[in-house]
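Figure 3 (text version): structure tokens given as input.
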């Protein structure tokens, strides 16, 4: 009897250790167990360790090492130094007056194409090249007046020629000076008639004033234009200028280097000089584009960053380190410990096209996030 009870007890013990526990009529509740920490969303550590990035009650961020690697965070140890003071101007691209020009009509006329046809926008031309023919047009009153003047000259010429013939027949009785005067008078009237007749319908060749490309063409074949009307505009794309506006005369002093961000890179500019006469309450500044192949167009707006000889105390940081917060303020993320990040309000000034100078808010030796700062701002 005792051996049977021992056998039943052993069987129950083995079943309890090896088989699943079933309840409520054979239901399996093993799936109701909580998953390990490593399987939870936002967790990257070993089982049982929660490593999700989160915002702490004091506003700082707790970002575990694993999350930092996922976000690609990078930081630099900053140092306060003397930086070149940089000023920012609004500018636009203009044509160099020594390498550009306009072709204008000197009188009212009709446009006729040349043998190769009228030039088109973007076509390269050379200085002195004939671009079109301008044939003068006159009203009926102007033509009648010019014809009357021709008839008057014809009458005067006929009188002068008969006087010359009579004086030559009376050679010996008439002085040589009188004969020579009659001959010169007739010759002058002939020249006046030729010039007046030629001017009535003489065509004018419109030539390119400089070598370059056609930037604008305001005409069609057969079009009638007025005097001083612009027909073509020619520019040299390898010689362009940038005009910027300064609203403080003190900013013009000591400009040493300038840049302008454009699509695909940085545009190097050389300062030529600034005006001392206000134009629309601003002083025009002139810069030359150093690159002859820059992707620019006349009239294109640019932001000019000019470095001056003055210096400011600050920290040079890439623009990617900055984040915008409420009320238009600027902030950076400072690493305070291995996994803690603090947002710091700072005051910045332009430095160049890729960096800014933090003039207030940072101290020597602080670690500032330079890559991934925008992703930290999304942590909640």
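Below: residues designed for each position.
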């Amino acid at each position: 009897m005792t051996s049977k009870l021992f056998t039943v007890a052993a069987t129950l013990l083995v079943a309890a250790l090896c088989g699943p526990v079933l309840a409520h009529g054979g239901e399996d509740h093993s799936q109701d167990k909580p998953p390990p920490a490593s399987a939870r969303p936002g967790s990257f550590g070993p089982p049982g360790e929660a490593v999700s990035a989160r915002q702490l009650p004091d506003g700082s961020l707790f970002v575990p090492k694993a999350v930092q690697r996922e976000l690609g965070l990078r930081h630099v140890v900053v140092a306060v130094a003397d930086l070149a003071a940089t000023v920012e101007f609004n500018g636009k691209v203009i044509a160099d007056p020594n390498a550009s020009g306009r072709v204008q009509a000197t009188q009212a006329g009709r446009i006729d194409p040349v043998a190769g046809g009228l030039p088109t926008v973007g076509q390269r031309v050379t200085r002195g090249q004939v671009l079109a023919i301008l044939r003068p047009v006159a009203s009926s009153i102007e033509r009648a007046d010019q014809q009357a003047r021709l008839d008057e000259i014809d009458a005067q010429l006929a009188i002068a020629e008969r006087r010359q013939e009579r004086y030559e027949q009376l050679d010996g009785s008439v002085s040589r000076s009188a004969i020579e005067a009659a001959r010169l008078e007739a010759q002058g009237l002939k020249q006046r008639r030729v010039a007046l007749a030629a001017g009535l319908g003489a065509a004018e060749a419109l030539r390119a004033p400089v070598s370059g490309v056609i930037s604008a063409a305001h005409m069609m074949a057969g079009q009638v234009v007025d005097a001083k009307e612009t027909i073509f505009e020619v520019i040299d794309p390898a010689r362009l200028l940038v005009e910027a506006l300064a609203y403080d005369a003190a900013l013009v002093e000591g400009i040493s280097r300038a840049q302008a961000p454009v699509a695909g890179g940085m545009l190097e500019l050389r300062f030529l000089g600034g005006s001392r006469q206000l134009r629309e309450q601003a002083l025009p500044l002139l810069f030359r584009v150093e690159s002859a192949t820059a992707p620019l167009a006349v009239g294109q707006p640019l932001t000019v960053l000019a470095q001056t000889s003055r210096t400011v105390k600050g920290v040079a940081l890439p623009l990617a380190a900055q984040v915008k917060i409420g009320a238009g303020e600027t902030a950076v993320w400072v690493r305070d410990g291995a996994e803690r990040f603090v947002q710091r309000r700072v005051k910045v000034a332009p430095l160049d096209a890729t960096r800014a100078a933090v003039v207030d808010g940072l101290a020597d030796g602080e670690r500032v996030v330079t890559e991934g700062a925008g992703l930290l701002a999304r942590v909640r």
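The chain has five helices and 24 strands.
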